[in-house]
Amino acid sequence: MTEIDAFKDQVEKFITEREITPTQFGKQFAGDPLFVFQLRDGREPRTQTRQRILAAMEAYPTEAAA
Does the pTM exceed 0.85? Predict the structure, then answer.
């Protein structure tokens, strides 16, 4: 599994567990409402972008999912 594939899996898992839409995720974490859809279609974000999004996902409060 490549680093990009692992990133995609983490994003999809986050969306599922937090029950947020791909559009919400894209707006909040990437500043782009189409981010997840483009990721699914083969978009390969830069390493810096992936690291920033992963850090934001880690800092996301668990109770915000409710």
Answer: yes
C-alpha span between 39 and 27 (Å, rounded) = 14
Rounded to 10 deg, the angle between the 47-59 and 3-18 helix axes is 30
**pLDDT tens profile 4-41:** 999 999 999 999 999 999 999 999 999 999 999 999 99
With contact defined as beta carbons under 8 Å apart, do 26 and 32 qualify?
yes
pLDDT of residue 63: 57
User: What tokens does 6 get?
Assistant: 């692992």
Contacts 24+ apart (CB under 8 A), 40-49: 40/8, 44/4, 45/7, 47/3
Q: What is the token pair recorded at 54?
A: 């992963």
